[in-house]
């Protein structure tokens, strides 16, 4: 974690290190299975895996920001938003990230970037229209906590293995690889292992990133509330944004779902209870309960 006034979270650090170790181990297993099953193509496998990793690490934040419609804005274009970010930066004693706005009625915010130099904090027009200044500052403090703790970068890297395994599984299922392998004798059995191992790796990687993501959201809520000293403002923003999600058209929510791991509040309507089981965020009740405890603690002499 960089040196800021955000409180260090050893639990988050431990989970990030553990998740990266396990996901790295899974990555080695996946590449190893591919090399065994498709031995004569090993140069292509290694090059492809290396290229995908580089692209994921260096450009995934830009791809995510583009996909979510983030457009960087200047001080003159959004003085109120820049002013709120400036106040949080001064409070946290950290460099100012790039500031962006996404034209979307979905009330949300997110942060991307590998480090403080490439960090970007974005707020949607829907959130700017609905939140009061204190509520918006609470949300921005939450998002900048992700930047300070560098868990945005960890989530970006952690998601790579799931993406790679998912691509391999889809290629195997839709290219007729399994049918060809059944007719290829013992060699075909080795090839059949590729989609099976890829699917297992995808599921394990998915669960690991979800567990890390839920904890990091609670950590960001906690450290943002402690930094600003106004947990009630963040709780109010959470309640307001979560309540507004049910009013957003389902089609818009579905387009936003792939980026839920980055959002302040996941893009789910109240009817999507199955999706909530695999949500990248803790429940609203858990987040509000934690903020209520912090409010009591801050009120003590």
From TrEMBL:
Record localization: Cell membrane
Co-factor(s): Zn(2+)
Keywords carried by this UniProt record: Cell membrane, Hydrolase, Membrane, Metal-binding, Metalloprotease, Protease, Transmembrane, Transmembrane helix, Zinc
TM helices/strands, residue ranges: 12-35, 41-59, 152-175, 187-208
Membrane protein topology class: Multi-pass membrane protein
Binding site for Zn(2+): 142, 146, 217
Enzyme Commission no: 3.4.24.-
InterPro entries: HtpX_protease, MFS_trans_sf, Pept_M48_protease_HtpX, Peptidase_M48
EC supergroup of this enzyme: hydrolase
Cofactor binding note: Binds 1 zinc ion per subunit.
Catalytic site: 143
One CC-aspect GO term: plasma membrane
CDD domains per the UniProt record, alphabetical: M48B_HtpX_like (cd07327)
Residue ranges of every copy of the Peptidase M48 domain listed in the record: 77-293
BP GO terms, sorted: proteolysis
Molecular-function GO term, any one: metalloendopeptidase activity
Family: Belongs to the peptidase M48B family.
HAMAP family according to UniProt: Pept_M48_protease_HtpX
Protein name, as recorded: Protease HtpX homolog
